[in-house]
Design goal:
2 domains; UDP-n-acetylglucosamine1-carboxyvinyl-transferase, Chain; 424 residues; four-stranded mixed sheet
């Protein structure tokens, strides 16, 4: 296990290119794997999660090669069930996207993963697939799952929109290959809508048409559509870059992060920083933060659950009470993020209260160093690391390698900006 030691850092400076988008990489790899012909993906994120998706697509028949900053993918054509279970590791995106696609493969596909993944719910997706004629089972509503392939009948299905948008994205990937037209109806309002919009955008780039209602509560998918090969350049990841922008804001530092193009999921971090009165400038895909005395605000996390962690840290250094709400889905992530974040920031001296659906934080807080358990959660580790930049004394992040899930170069990038960090 890797331990990272962080000492109080008064100033950061410099510029970085944003890490490539994990969400975009997952989706472009899957769409390319379903396409006829050769696709190219430039600037992909290579992390534990995206590696799981690439391995899963390869096991279903796609041919994927990686050289430098380029993925070349030859689509699978006729999908085939692998002889061995697909190991999705810790990646909920992988298992939720690939489970519907496995229904298109001849044979029976088993998808499994790490102990942490086996605690992530998948029952709503299984029920939706069963309504579309797919034979599939899970372990009491959790992975591993078994999918009998041979095709998706199509028709009408319904599922909730407030557990995870990944269920909807998985169906959008697979249902263009259904035998009949498919209608997907959401029984509750969709949360994390920008992620479904990204799925739809990438699918449409590959020649697939998805009709969606204005409120994204209903989707119409015509049968008989085929994916075509395409080229992608993966833009920067706002949810990962938010930790860098937050670090600059709380340390009153000036940094610039490039390749952050809108619209993308979690670009709301720009508006949040502006509302908190952070000083920033946005121009041609570059976000420049120049510190600022932060002010507490209310944050609705319905569509931005991944921003709760960096926002909670900024709240610790903001004047007044910050209220984060509509974040109850964070209890179903890699960890119970509301509980984990509250527990670890309290160790550091934060005045933070966990509520039913979010957090209340009274700032500014005087933080001190502590030994942090990130609960094997990459976003908890990154949040506590940037908090450590302004904590008196030494902060130790245990199991720090968990950041490899989404942002393998996170600690190196902080050190490039001048953070006082040692890896041991």
């Amino acid at each position: 296990m890797t331990t990272v030691v962080i000492q109080e850092t008064t100033k950061l400076s410099g510029s970085l290119e944003a890490p490539p988008s994990k969400s975009y990489t997952h989706r472009s790899v899957i769409a390319a794997s379903l396409a006829t012909g050769k696709s190219r993906i430039l600037n992909p994120l290579i992390s534990e999660d995206t590696a799981a998706t690439m391995e899963a697509c390869s096991s279903l028949g796609a041919k994927i090669t990686h050289k430098d900053r380029l993925l070349t993918i030859v689509g699978a054509g006729e999908l085939r069930a692998p002889a061995n279970p697909i190991d999705c590791r810790e990646s909920a995106s992988t298992i939720r996207f690939l489970t519907p696609i496995a229904a298109l493969a001849e044979g029976t596909t088993v998808l499994t993963g790490s102990p942490g993944l086996k605690r992530r719910p998948i029952e709503p997706l299984m029920r939706a697939l069963q309504q579309l004629g797919v034979k599939c089972t899970s372990s009491n509503g959790f992975p591993p799952v078994s999918v009998v392939g041979g095709g998706i009948t199509g028709g009408c299905t319904s599922l909730v929109g407030n557990v995870t948008s990944q269920f909807i994205s998985g169906l959008l990937f697979a249902c263009p290959h259904a035998d009949e037209d498919t209608t997907i109806e959401l029984t509750t309002p969709l949360e994390s809508k920008p992620y479904v919009e990204l799925t739809r955008k990438i699918i449409e780039k590959h020649g697939i048409n998805i009709e969606a209602s204005k409120d994204f509560r209903s989707f119409e998918i015509s049968s008989g559509q085929r994916y075509v090969a395409q080229e992608h350049f993966v833009p920067g990841d706002f949810s990962s870059s938010a930790f860098l922008l937050a670090a600059a804001a709380i340390t009153h530092s000036k940094i610039a992060v490039s390749n952050l193009h809108q619209p993308m999921p979690d670009d709301e971090i720009i508006n949040i920083l502006q509302k908190m009165r952070g000083r920033l400038r946005v121009r041609r895909g570059v976000i420049e933060v120049d510190g600022g005395d932060l002010t507490a605000i209310d944050i609705d996390a319905r569509d931005i659950p991944d921003l709760v962690m960096p926002c909670a840290v900024m709240a610790c250094f903001s004047e007044g009470e910050t209220r984060i709400y509509n974040a109850q889905r964070l209890r179903l992530k890699e960890s119970n993020r509301l509980e984990a974040l509250s527990t670890e920031l309290k160790k550091m001296g934060a005045e933070i209260l966990e509520t039913r659906d979010g957090l209340r934080i009274n700032g500014p807080c005087t933080l001190h160093g502590a030994t942090v358990n990130p609960h094997n959660d990459h976003r908890i580790a990154m949040a506590c690391a940037i908090a450590g930049l302004m904590a008196e004394g030494r902060t130790m992040i245990l199991n720090a390698e968990c950041v490899n899930k989404s942002y393998p170069t996170f600690f190196k990038d902080l050190m490039k900006l001048g953070a006082n960090i040692r890896v041991r």
